[in-house]
Design goal:
alpha+beta, 5-stranded antiparallel beta sheet, 8 helices
């Protein structure tokens, strides 16, 4: 059972009076300390759907004991490592992460584009000094804990949880001194009996985008699940789940580019009945009330909302999701597709935590060299490697 230090009192989650102490600490803005190791690790209390939850602060997972539920794998095994200290800077006092974007939150002119379109090499620029649009989506997913999974949670993760955890994670991020939450819109779970109130809150948040103004216009970041790409006269209307009656206009050239750039993500989504297609986009509006897409990136996730980037990784993620031990999905962030990463970490594996790597069939010699260097640099981790060109997936680690 997890133990905390709450305002000078040592307590555990099942102890008598724990909820009362937690409520008092939340009201008085007391920071809990996780006692999984020495020194204790500062955390914070979040209100997730009217339930108080103790959560780790941004980018502090590596400070927890590997056996602690708040532990995170080493950042250098994913695309997060190169971003630390440049695109992402932690303020340990405030407990917030300051972000630098390689995309704009303002717009001059009518042109739509895809995330990283000017790079011409991949959907995302490999730039460690600034966070791409897809990189921001990955960081939100990472900090929300949505990369973590155990079979015990099967059937218990829905949009309600995704929405609340993403919203809470954004609250601890800022860009250029402004809270990210002020420039981020995530559709709340739609309920017919609360339709009017939900639409009013949405209009209040997005309303400034449609104000007539000359010169540079304000943009917002929207994160939501794609329901469909509907036909439009010259382009597509993007329909987002939980936003009935609301349409986002994407110009025809950008739609054709999206189909090319995100062909794999679209095929993964269309080939299965249980996967979800997530979109992150910068959106603006016209004085006529039309919502427009300025820049967009896509990410396919499984039925458990775990990100996947190809069919091989989907197979691996779905197999590991059946294990009754914790797994952490690695994310690429700005990392180019030709570079390896730990696709999955099993922090509870014995005798050592395990990094699971997938080598795609088109991987070159450079990929194998980098993978070997990653393994050599982490003797504290066991490794599991699936070279797809060699055949079927190797056996998974046995349960604890």
């Amino acid at each position: 059972m997890r133990r905390y230090l709450l305002d000078g009192t040592i307590c555990d989650e099942s102890g008598e009076g724990f909820r009362e102490l937690l409520s008092q600490a939340y009201r008085e803005k007391v920071r809990p300390l996780c006692l999984c190791c020495e020194p204790a690790v500062p955390m914070y209390i979040a209100d997730i759907g009217d339930q108080l939850v103790i959560k780790r602060m941004p980018l502090t997972g590596g400070k927890h004991d590997p056996a602690c539920p708040s532990y995170e794998p080493p950042y250098e095994l994913s695309g997060l490592g190169p971003l630390m200290g440049g695109a992402i800077k932690l303020d340990p006092v405030a407990g917030t992460a300051s972000l630098k974007f390689d995309f704009s939150l303002s717009k001059r002119g009518p042109v739509s584009r895809l995330d990283g379109e000017t790079a011409q090499t991949d959907s995302v620029r490999n730039n460690s000094k600034k966070l791409s649009l897809r990189g921001l989506l990955h960081f939100l997913w990472h900090e929300s804990g949505l990369t973590e999974w155990t079979a015990h949670w099967s059937g218990k993760r829905h949009w309600w949880q995704v929405y609340h955890h993403l919203s809470e994670a954004a609250r601890l991020m800022e860009v250029r001194g402004e809270a990210l939450a002020e420039r981020l819109f995530i559709p709340e779970p739609f309920r017919v009996d609360d339709k009017a109130a939900i639409e009013q809150r949405r209009a209040q948040k997005l309303g400034p985008l449609f104000l007539a103004a000359s010169g540079t216009k304000r943009l917002m970041v929207l994160v939501g699940e794609i329901k469909e790409f509907a036909d439009a006269r010259n382009g597509r209307q993007i329909v987002i789940k939980h936003m009935p009656g609301f349409r986002l206009y994407l110009e025809e050239p950008a739609w054709r580019s999206l189909q090319r750039r995100f062909e794999t993500e679209l095929m993964l989504w269309q080939s299965g009945d249980t996967s979800h297609l997530m979109a992150i986009m910068t959106v603006g509006g016209t004085s006529a009330g039309v919502a427009t897409v300025n820049e967009v990136a896509l990410m396919t996730v499984t039925e458990h909302w775990l990100p996947i980037e190809n069919a091989y990784e989907q197979q691996l993620v779905e197999h590991v999701a059946r294990l009754r031990m914790k797994s952490v999905k690695g994310l690429r962030f700005n990392l180019a597709r030709g570079q390896p990463l730990a696709n999955i970490i099993l922090p509870e594996a014995k005798p050592l935590p395990m990094a699971m790597y997938l080598v795609p069939p088109d991987a070159g010699e450079g990929f194998e060299v980098m993978l070997g260097e990653m393994n050599e640099a982490r003797p504290d981790l066991a490794s599991w490697i699936w070279r797809v060109s060699d055949g079927d997936m190797p056996s998974l680690p046995p349960p604890r």
